């Protein structure tokens, strides 16, 4: 749950409002309806959608989503799962009164555990979630990203914290300006790893 929360917040804070929900949606769909965790994620998904519509000047859609988000977040404590839910509710109320405030002031930054989370702040587990979001959004080969994440997890399990795969997955998530070249490098390392695995398997054929 924590890695999904942080990934979605970092994606939102990067200005990719519409894409933030992709970090939460799979986790949300696995939760029992009406639980506090489900209401939190559902409310955050509606909140980010409201901001997206506000920036698109779809004021009616924005306000409708704000009302939906407020409903899902109602009843949750002001601080839940590291999220300042009270502040999110205050922001929602302000947008409901005047959705154009998003243009005048810009979108609010979301916090987790009291910190404005940026893509570069994500640990590997959260960066892996964000990497998957950006691979899908920007049309990169998702199999390459998934394989890189798998190899990174294997390396971490073996104590190799400085694994190239770990660094490349984190860089892919955090460095949009160089995402293309990072993807190429990751694809090359994935191919090399697969070749080594096949070579080892061939020894026992």
Automatic annotation (TrEMBL):
<dbReference type="InterPro" id="IPR005500">
    <property type="entry name" value="DUF309"/>
</dbReference>
<protein>
    <submittedName>
        <fullName>DUF309 domain-containing protein</fullName>
    </submittedName>
</protein>
<dbReference type="InterPro" id="IPR023203">
    <property type="entry name" value="TTHA0068_sf"/>
</dbReference>
<dbReference type="Pfam" id="PF03745">
    <property type="entry name" value="DUF309"/>
</dbReference>
